[in-house]
Design a protein that fits this description.
- There is one protein chain.
- A five-stranded mixed beta sheet has the order 4-3-2-1-5.
- It has one domain.
- It starts with 6 loop residues before the first strand and ends with a helix.
- The chain is of the alpha+beta class.
- The longest helix is centred in the middle third of the chain and has 11 residues.
């Protein structure tokens, strides 16, 4: 997952807003490596069972550490459509 550049940092210019995603087996999940969150069901159910992270979140942290993140730059004008699409996929 790391070497395949499935961890993506979406940067919106000029505001510098950032959204992290990880492309999983079947879809893309929103992650917050600093806030410890992933939108996948495994993260939710893992939290109920005392786990602190899913493999998407662990992959994001490792990709950041190893500098294996794909950065994609967007215009601020695209932010609301991007966010709407991300929420729709949840």
């Amino acid at each position: 997952m790391i070497l395949e550049k499935r961890v993506k940092l979406h940067v919106f210019e000029p505001s510098k807003r950032k959204i992290w995603t990880v492309v999983g087996k079947n879809n893309e999940h929103w992650v917050d490596p600093d806030g410890v969150y992933c939108s996948c069901p495994g993260f939710y159910y893992g939290k109920l069972n005392g786990k602190t992270a899913c493999y998407h979140l662990e992959s994001a942290r490792l990709a950041i550490k190893e500098k294996q993140v794909e950065t994609i730059v967007f215009s601020d004008d695209e932010f609301s459509d991007f966010l709407s699409g991300l929420i729709f996929d949840l």
